[in-house]
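Sat 14:20. Reprocessing the chain from the morning session after the first attempt stalled halfway. Input below, unchanged.
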Amino acid sequence: MASPLTQTKPAASKSSKTNGSRNTFASTFVLDFEKPVIELERKIAEMRGLATGPGMDTLKVEIDKLEKKANKLRKEIFAKLTRWQKVQLARHPRRPYMLDYVERICDTWLELHGDRCYADDHAIVAGFASIEEEQVLLIGQQKGRGTKDNLFRNFAMAHPEGYRKAIRLMTLAQKFNRPVITFIDTPGAYPGLGAEERGQAEAIARSLYEMARLTVPIIAIVIGEGGSGGALAISVADEIHMMEYSIYSVISPEGCASILYRDATEAPQAAEALKLTAEDLKEIGIIDNIISEPSGGAHENFDASAAAIKAVILSSLKRLKAIPTEKLIAARHKKYEEIGFWLDR
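Finished this time. Tokens:
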């Protein structure tokens, strides 16, 4: 159905300035296990600067050897990451956020604001978009880059009005027969006093209820940190996909460690117990698909990450749109009824 809304080409996000395919924000931030590769890459970059003149063939050969060494080293490191290291990757400040993907995936984008009850929550971004021939509604949590932007986005922790905005727009998407695609990336819903006074729990519960009975296809993609009820609130879907180095859990490793071990510093141990990685959740049937990330993680190549997500969205939409509405909703209900149920043999 044609929409009366006028859409525009998505502009580059103010919080995600990039140069080509690689994110240049916070380029000095490096995780401990990334350091050997990053140091080698910096050495290669310095050598390239010296190899521009004539008579530098020997140096160019050495650069090629170092590049192969760096690629091999990266593969070795990322092949044996612990769950805690994957948690760190999911939270990486150079990782692409929702608006970075909107910029790269969507042909048109019209952001909509407000819950029509209280305010506009900047932690949740939502709007109608076109992806090639598909007309969809996109909803997702948006983290900030830097202190000022993070405060504006409230560190991607939504207030009740954020979830009520999502509910309002999902209802609108249903009216125009637009599939809903959600991007999950939050530590959790905001636990502040004001949020509780305005009905945080009710807003999350209402979102779960409305998504469970929505008559259009729903696709959820965990792009970074999928934490607690704040993540679940917009991830009731027909298909749930996770980026390779994202996480999805009922509680953060630090929160779990504080409860179980009385010590938040035991978060690495808690991460192992929670089994919150994409591989873990695919194995136990909570998610449907793992989206591969570029070598070194999504933050190493925004364009490749976006292309992988776009391909999954288009293939999922083709599959889900062919299912009659009644069967779609029935399958969605069955999917969630089966989560957490298994036979112990």
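The chain is about 45% helix and 15% strand.
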